[in-house]
Amino acid sequence: MTIPLVVGVDGSEAGLEAVDWGASEAVRHGVPLHLLHAAAGDRDAGGVLGAASARARKSAPAVRLSSEVVHEDAACALVDLGRDAFALVLGSRGLGGLAGMLLGSVGLAVAARADCPVVVVRGAQEHRGDRFGCVVVGVEDEHGSGTAVEFACREAQVRHCRLVAVHAWSAPPGACTTPQAPSWPLEAHVRPPAQVLDDTLRGVPGRYRDTPVCRQVVEGPARRALLDAATGADLLVVGAPRRLGHPGLQLGLINHAVLHHAPCPVAVVPQR
Q1: Spatial distance between the Cα atoms of 237 and 145, rounded to a whole number of angstroms
Q2: Domain shared by 69 and 138, yes or no
Q3: N or C: which end of the chain has fewer CB within 10 A?
């Protein structure tokens, strides 16, 4: 049985935008689409789910569609389903959320705890299709970014578009340097920024070798480099490390920044 892509719906317009995106994504990957509505006292649960199902069928008539209503906390229900899901897809804010910039509390909780990739559908309509022909992935190093890079390669492949791999770095104050040949003394375990990017991309599985890749090594804060790159992207992918003894994902400052401010959908991918 193929595991489904799960979309959380709550009756909001952002939730319906997530249905549109999730339906297209399910078709791209040939996986079923499952809609989840956590009722939590909602008397119109059937209406919410009916509207979302109709939207999914309109967006992707051929998608294999299922749905369910659960009577529990939305974040907990989504995290539970995420243990056996292709990905979880959410709108950028729910009913009553602050428009424009901030991620809703359910989305943030799910992104912080889920065991599978979580996609938060953000940005204007132009960023929710394939207009730009570009998937951006943030690269920290091959140990902290390998799974995110593989996910991003897969997304670029099914979209038949290019992948932009971004690695941000900072030189010591006063140093005169380049990403390829830093002038400050390097410790034995420290590599030039360009090599970090090359080493990470070298680990990409062979089935993605035909995906066109653009490397960007940027001096400065990672959150700014990623947000700048995302202005011309259909999807921004970031990794989230795991810490021993801490369940789920650990969201740092960079991931918080892109989840709150990115101009396009953001995928948060747990690192193996």
Answers
A1: 10
A2: no
A3: N
| Helix (H) or strand (E) run with residue 135 in it | strand 134-138
Number of domains in the chain: 2
For the stretch 170-185, pLDDT in tens is 876 655 556 655 554 5
21, 30, 114, 143, 242 from 247: Cα distances, Å = 28, 30, 9, 19, 8
Summarize pLDDT for 97-119 with one digit per residue, the tens: 444 334 677 888 899 899 999 99
- Residue 102 Cα distances to 106, 107, 122, angstroms: 12, 10, 10
Same domain, residue pair 111 and 143: no
Domain span at residue 26 reads: 5-121
Same domain? For 56 and 115 the reply is yes
Which residues, listed in sequence order, are joined to residue 164 by a DSSP beta bridge? Answer: 136, 214
User: Tens of pLDDT along 32-89?
Assistant: 999 999 876 667 888 999 999 999 999 999 999 999 999 989 999 999 999 999 999 9
Q: Which helix (H) or strand (E) element contains residue 79?
A: helix 74-81
**CATH code, domain carrying 151:** 3.40.50.12370
Own/partner long-range contacts of 25-29 (Cβ < 8 Å, ≥24 apart): 25/87, 25/89, 25/119, 26/60, 26/63, 26/64, 26/86, 27/60, 27/62, 27/63, 28/158, 28/159, 29/5, 29/86, 29/158
Beta carbons of 196 and 139 less than 8 angstroms apart: yes
Q: Are residues 79 and 153 in the same domain?
A: no
Both 143 and 92 in a single domain?
Answer: no
**How many Cα atoms occupy the beta-carbon half-sphere of 216 within 13 Å?**
19
Pick the closest to residue 80 from 113, 120, 31 (CA basis): 113
Whether residues 161 and 46 share a domain: the answer is no
Q: State the pairing for strand pair 162-169/213-219.
A: parallel
